[in-house]
Amino acid sequence: MLVNFFDRIVIPAFFLDVDHKVIGWNPAMEALSGLSREQMLGTKTQWKAFYSEERPVLADLVLEVDLNEQLELYYSGRYEHCDVVSGAISATDYFPNMPQGPKWMSFSASVVYDQYGNRCGAVETVIDITEQKHFAALLIKRERHFRELSITDQLTGVYNSRYLHRQLQEELSRSSRSGQVFSICMLDLDNFKNVNDQYGHLAGDDVLQFFANIIKENLRKQDRAFRFGGEEFLILLPDTTTQSAFVVAERIRESLVLRQHFLDTGVKPVTVSIGITEYKEGDQETTLVGRADNALYSAKAAGKNCTIISA
Ligand SMILES: Nc1nc2c(ncn2[C@@H]2O[C@H](COP(=O)(O)OP(=O)(O)OP(=O)(O)O)[C@@H](O)[C@H]2O)c(=O)[nH]1
């Protein structure tokens, strides 16, 4: 006869009788909880395996008549009914004070009946899912990282032009629904070809990174900067008129002039020209960007190192 099958189960498990007394505590449960069978049998201290203060465990709850209320009270949003065993409940929780350190655990409990169909207790199994939880968190983090990489310009760390297209489409459809204004600034470094020609491509890259950092430092949280092309950047400023965008653009332009002596490349000071426009009803991406581009062209034609708002 199989007398010790409960002890041979590798999943931590324990039995309670209908009075909530522990009548079974297998070796796997001893290992998980650090509490021996001798300590537990005949007591109602099953909570000690999981909690620092007395409270019902899941096996206690499945024995209660007001099970659903109790579940809501103790495991709100973290429990579900199992399909495989009728009346069984599963829950997941974080246990900061387990003997081997904090653990995430998944546990299931169900009522046990005798051969006449009378309730004679409840059984609970406990599975340590800490590793799965860490793995899932790692996957989410990796996914976020790769997503971030796919929308970021590798040299400068601002968003890339592929993402700009998506963001402009979103902003345009938001504004066409709400009528809310937004502005864009097109920024183009002046005579940048000379930097590459005189000091080399790597020095040029340093200038691009330096300039991108100046842009980032001068933006609010809701503003976004993109690398539009080679030495051309675009800033998207939600809920912003051209007058306010002008203030931001000028701050960036002046910072570039003032901060340049920090740049350790020996490169002669570089300046930037900026064109600004704001959303007009009926705008498409090409009309909006085209206006900013025309304003930028006017800034270049006006002698560079200046900001012009589109007519
Ligand atoms: N170092 C570096 N240079 C780049 C990069 N992308 C584009 N460029 C350079 O940027 C320069 C752009 O030159 P132009 O389009 O003639 O413009 P410009 O010299 O800035 O002249 P203006 O715009 O009229 O002031 C070219 O020399 C490109 O090779 C890059 O990723 N790194």
Query: Can you write the helix and strand succession as a string?
Result: EEHHHHEEEEHHEHHEEHEHE
Instruction: Give me the CATH architecture of the largest domain, please.
Output: 2-Layer Sandwich
Strand content: 15-25%
Task: Please report the distance between the alpha carbons of the first and last residues.
Answer: 94 Å
Overall morphology: elongated
Q: Which ligands does the model contain, each kind named once?
A: guanosine-5'-triphosphate
Spatial sequence of strands, sheet with the most strands: 2-1-6-5-4-3
Q: In which range does the helix fraction lie?
A: 25-40%
Structure in words:
This protein is α+β, with helices and mostly antiparallel strands and 311 residues long. The chain has 2 domains: 122 residues, Beta-Lactamase, CATH 3.30.450; 157 residues, 2-Layer Sandwich (Alpha-Beta Plaits), CATH 3.30.70. The strands form 2 sheets. Strands 2-1-6-5-4-3 form a 6-stranded antiparallel β-sheet. The protein has a 5-stranded mixed β-sheet with strand order 8-9-7-10-11, with helices on both faces. The N and C termini lie far apart (94 Å). The model has no long low-confidence stretch (mean pLDDT 93). The site of guanosine-5'-triphosphate (GTP) has 16 residues, from strand 7, helix 7 and helix 8. Guanosine-5'-triphosphate (GTP) binds next to strand 7, helix 7 and helix 8.
